[in-house]
Every structure is written in C-alpha cells, then in structure tokens.
Sequence to fold (113 residues):
Amino acid sequence: MTSQNRPTPPSTLEQNIADSLATLEDSDAEQLRAAASYLEALAAWTESRDDEQGSDATADASVDEAGDATGDAEYPPDVPERASVTVKEIAGTTYHYYQWRDGDRIESKTVQR
Fold:
C-alpha cells in the first residue's frame, strides 16, 4: 500500500478513540497487528457480555463475568490450556474464540462448535 492509500480512521469515532488511534499510527506492523488482535478479542467479549445481559439464554459451557468459558471447555490440540476462551453464539452457531500470548505475540484461533 502506498502512502497515498494510507487508511484513515472513520469520522464517526469519538474524539478520545480517534486520539488513541493517532498514537498508534507510527507503530510498526507487528505492534499494530497485536493491537488489532486485542481489539478484536475485546469487541467479541463486549458483544458476548452485551448478549448475556440482553437475554436469558444459557450457553453449553459456563461463562464467567469476563466472558471466558470455564469448566468443561475442550481446547483444540494446537491451543495451550492457558488460552482465554470466549464463547459466542451467532445465528444459532456457537463459536469458541481462543487467545493466548506466545512470547511477544498474541495468537488466536476460532473454532466453530
């Protein structure tokens, strides 16, 4: 991507969020991807929390206040057991979002159940 095609933040963002994004603009690609991964996980957690507060539906796995599955969660073979798990139901399909740190990198995996 050339400097002429540099992405710009949406104009609908609140000023404090736009200011936060401006501080990231000079970060290297690895740092931006780590921040993006965190923000995706945070968005999924926020949606999960909002869904839980808005409905009385129960999930197959018990979910704590942070939106992480506890108890009977089964980790895929390539996901460490220390990974955080967010369970989300979208259009009747349950997804498990796994996220963990590998050194300085944040790894993630999504599994449809």
